[in-house]
Amino acid sequence: MLVRKVPGFVPASPWGLRLPQKFVFLLFLSGLVTLCFGALFLLPNSSRLKRLFLAPRTQQPGLEAVAQVASHPRARGQESPPNPAPAAPAPGEDDPGSQASSRRRKGWLRRTHPTGPREEATAARGSGATALRPQEGSVPSSFDFKAFRSRLRHPVLGTRADRSKEPQSLVHTQREKIKEMMRFAWQSYKRYAMGKNELRPLTRDGYEGNMFGGLSGATVIDSLDTLYLMELKEEFQEAKAWVEESFHLNVVFRIKAIKLGEKLLPAFDTPTGIPKGVVNFKSGSNRSWGWAMAGSSSILAEFGSLHLEFLHLTQLSGNQVFAEKVRNIRKVLREIDKPFGLYPNFLSPVSGNWMQHHVSVGGLGDSFYEYLIKSWLMSAKTDMEAKEMYYEALEAIETHLVNVSPGGLTYIAEWRGGILDHKMGHLACFSGGMIALGAEDAKEEKRAHYRELAAQITKTCHESYARSDTKLGPEAFWFNSGREAVATQTSESYYILRPEVVESYMYLWRQTHSPIYREWGWEVVMALEKYCRTEAGFSGIQDVYSKVPNHDNKQQTFFLAETLKYLYLLFSEDDMLSLEDWVFNTEAHPLPVNHSDSSGWGGG
């Protein structure tokens, strides 16, 4: 679950947005996760690792690393991809003003931010993807693909042993429908916006925007693992070929990511080690976003959502500096005084003090909590610090934020210095899945309680869908004045193809196998088809309470990365991208669990 979401249009209120400047570098790292995942299992065993992760054993002076990739022998009968474009200095690299945000959300960046900061994302295209220079291919590798494969408990796409009996089944038909939606979304993007960040289906053109740090092709990167998962082989090859030819991280992805990570380290040059939101690649200077407490603060959902990717970067590079940076963030957060055990959204990277006491499990805070439990799981349940911090935070959230409405709906309110706002954002609806995911490892006496809490929160989020005319949920919904689980103003009534609700359906399905979650998921599929599908792609709508849709003309990249992926997994067997082997980052790109033994499915 790394901005998470870039809104189709920005509402006036800041609270309901899942921060889009989730450090633009995690946009790149999310792309890396996707590319590496697809390559690990698409290419033959003999070449997967070498083509994407391993540096050449020798590097002839003056040759770019791309030559090593291009010359690697391919398996018999496998079609050669288009020749990669020669590496070149990334546009904007020599521009002193070229900047990149030092962060996602919950794919590119997971969250969205308050009105107005779009102009803050100022990285020139590719500024985070500095071209490889001679000798850069000599970065040592610490990633052992054979050992990685041997530790998987399940085949990546599942055993699918009963597929021959499945063609006439309802679940097969439903899964194939979701697959068709993904194919349609991809083909529309390819036809009208290939190489742009997102498709505008009404005007049938592409959109770049500022929330991608100047990078192009966000939809391609975000779609790769979904295309692979759905076995849309032709479409996956199209996306892969575009990356090889046109994406600025196209040469030895592992080395690119390491170099990018090194360029982003100046963001951490603060008295506390808490990174600021923007780093200038040319000068190495950093700054906070101007809209974040007048430029004085870093954002919890930004600096708190680096752990998975930075630990993975250390694993790929062998360089401990990346892990050290995020461990220091943990240390600061562990030691700081927290009001009633809660984590406010704004922290000064200079003083290490909270800048105000606004607490949200939705926008500005969300993925911090998600990454605590997922760090525990990705570590194969050895990261005790993450586990302790997660359950302590969850206890504080339940004590001070969780409420039950007069109508019996459980929701997570927002906290402002002791005063509750009785509202819940769509972005906070991921929490049902998060709590379900963490229930198994809670204290024994709390496990059943957390499973029930997860189910009740997810039910409430479903109600926000069921109580709209379109059966799609609003950006935010309230519990006051006799109205429950509905938006109270038009600026909160929009739906921009968000995934958080179906994300929770997927996790609850895998935990309980209750058919209600597939029923609810299918309701979403039908609503998407009826109200969001246009002749040239899918679009968000500006009012979920109107049966005459007013489209926002944006097929969000996270729709392909997350919404359709989670729906497809909801109607798939549990061993497809098994949760024993994989943890989804905040943009639904899978990262491997660090199993320490070799007794898994791939161990033979």
Topology (elements, then pairings):
Layout: H1 24-42, H2 45-52, H3 65-70, E1 99-101, H4 145-150, H5 170-193, E2 198-200, E3 205-207, H6 218-229, H7 233-246, H8 253-264, E4 278-280, E5 286-287, E6 298-299, H9 300-303, H10 307-317, H11 321-335, E7 346-347, E8 358-359, H12 366-378, H13 384-400, E9 402-404, E10 410-412, E11 414-416, E12 419-421, E13 423-425, H14 431-439, H15 444-466, E14 476-480, E15 483-486, H16 500-512, H17 515-532, E16 533-534, E17 537-538, H18 557-570, E18 582-584, E19 590-592
Antiparallel strand pairs: 1-4, 2-3, 4-5, 6-7, 8-11, 9-10, 11-12, 13-14, 14-15, 16-17, 18-19
Helix pairs in contact: 1-2, 1-6, 1-8, 5-6, 5-18, 6-7, 6-18, 8-10, 10-11, 12-13, 12-14, 14-15, 14-16, 15-16, 16-17, 16-18
Notes on the protein architecture:
The protein is mostly helical and 604 residues long. The chain has 18 helices and 19 strands. β11 (414-416) and β12 form a beta hairpin. It starts with 23 loop residues before the first helix and ends in a 12-residue tail after the last strand. Mean pLDDT is 78; it is low at 1-29 and 38-139. This is Mannosidase alpha class 1C member 1. It comes from Ovis aries.
